Amino acid sequence: MALNIIKKYLTKSSCYNSGGRINPEGIQIHTLGTPQNTAESLASYWNQAGIQACVHYAVDAEVEGKVLQFLPENYRSWADAGYGNGHLITIEGMESDYMKYTSGANFTITNVEKFKADIKRSYNGMVLLCADICKRRGWNPLAKLKNGLYLISSHNEGRLAGLSSGHVDPTHVWNKLGYTMDGFRAAVKAAMEPQIKVGRKYKFTVKTYFREKPSGTCIQYDKLSSGAKKKAKKLINGKAKIKVGKIVKAREVFTKPNGDIWIRAQNDKNGWLCVKYKGKYRVK
User: Fold this and answer.
1) From CA 77, how far away is CA 20, in angstroms rounded?
2) CA gyration radius for the chain?
């Protein structure tokens, strides 16, 4: 699933033209509260004067990874009637055409399978979007703000803290699929880390020894393939290290019980490099 952010500023909306600006310090998660799964439909409705609502991003529930950006991130949104408006990047997750609200946050589901598919797409899209925002801004999605809220919080968590209006989103929708905010934050953190897979290329950020096997004997520079030699540095003792900034294709991946991850960089079953050591990644 790839993230596709499309800028679609709502320049006709009262929120966009209000002139409010913020210095974002975190993210606030919402779901729409209306049985609608496309972000385009929300853009059409909100992009007019007099609508008292607008967020920075809307995540589609019909098309995987599709996100519409309604406001620049430094614009004040109209999302939670409280702390979120003045301090947070706000994200609206679209819901589903296959639900029908009865009263308040209560709703019935007209097609369980299609409802779950919509909410899953919306949830996964928000995970990727939050990971993108946190990487760009150097934020830790598991951190907490000075007021006690998590850096990534929900409208419902803001309500419980007495900082937002009395809405319970996204809890009332997510609990149908077993999703929680703690699980969401963990998923964002995981999405920010390199996903080590065979066939992918990785750029090293730390000088690392070539080894005969994971945690095995260091390889002598002269035993490397010609291609590997171009990416390596020969040490005084003749051993070889990958240079910082060099890109290596993972031909095999091995994960140790302690969580360390190794990739094989050569075709001859040789030339292993450690890409994750003691919880820290050595590659991008």
Assistant:
1) 8
2) 23
Architecture of domain 4-192: 3-Layer(aba) Sandwich (3.40)
Q: Which residues of the chain have pLDDT under 50?
A: none
Q: Of the candidates 128, 106, 105, 109, which has an alpha carbon nearest to the alpha carbon of residue 117? A: 109
Domain residue extents for the chain = 4-192, 201-281
**What pLDDT does 123 receive?**
96
Express the helix, strand and coil content of the chain in percent, nearest 5 each.
25, 25, 50
The token duo for 10 is 């709502």
Sign of the four-CA dihedral 183, 121, 10, 4: positive
99 is written with which tokens? 């639900």
| pLDDT at 226 (0 to 100) | 86
User: What gap in Å lies between CA 117 and CA 37, rounded to an integer?
Assistant: 11
Closest CA to 273 of 193, 203, 222, 226: 203
